[in-house]
């Protein structure tokens, strides 16, 4: 057993054996400079192949078995037993990309003021694209949607102080976790490298397909948790300025609304713009 663990990689597993070996091999391929551990949380898998693979890993990694309770519960269980100062939740069908996670961990260890480090990622499979997360803005995260992936490195103390992931949510549990972290003013750092490869396969097995049925209710729940004190005039102004600065579409929308209001109204009617506000 490794001592002085710095990073704990926590992987919930639910019937994803067809991808799990590839995921683990991608982690092993990273030349981590610091001691790390892999914690596999079997969230009530019933697939024979998955169970056989987990059995093979039990003498190599930490394997935890629990009744099916969802990804939030599985992560909480794994993180509760994690030895590392830093936590990296990782899906059992995604792949680490080159050596970027080691570089990211170096950055966190060197700068103790960073609480949460996130980056870009590559989408592969049925879709192929580069997902650029962009610079951190607290109101953008809370109000407009989650631009941080779940595969983000953070201090275990953040998880403790947040009370873990909300097990009442079956959707947007990451967004909820990051939003609560943002409210507490944790220091987010954008590491503008493609940290991992996010699998999108429309075969009914990829984890990206297993969520979304309760999205509206989940978003309503998590937004109700945010205190009104977050929405100050200063924070809203900063949010608008940063959003417009980084988005070509929003720049065009703002210019049209100010200088060509009739054209803007016409484009609204044609549903080019979903609403009259500049920043969604």
Which outline best applies? globular
Q: How many runs of DSSP E, i.e. beta strands?
A: 9
The largest β sheet comes out as:
9 strands, mixed
Q: What is the arithmetic mean of pLDDT?
A: 85
Strand content: 15-25%
Derived structural class: alpha/beta
What report would you give on this structure?
- With 280 residues, the chain is an alpha/beta fold.
- Helices cover 40% and strands 20% of the residues.
- It contains 11 helices and 9 strands.
- It has helices spanning 17-28, 48-57, 71-80, 100-110, 138-144, 156-162, 173-183, 215-224, 233-246, 248-259, 261-269; strands at residues 7-13, 36-43, 62-66, 86-89, 95-96, 116-125, 129-131, 153-155, 188-200.
- Strands 1, 2, 3, 4, 5, 6, 7, 8 and 9 form a 9-stranded mixed β-sheet that branches.
- A hairpin with a 3-residue loop joins strand 6 (116-125) and strand 7 (129-131).
- Helix 1 runs parallel beside helix 2 (48-57), helix 9 (233-246) packs across helix 10 (248-259) and helix 10 (248-259) packs across helix 11 (261-269).
- The longest helix has 14 residues, at 233-246.
- It is globular.
- It starts with 6 loop residues before the first strand and ends in an 11-residue tail after the last helix.
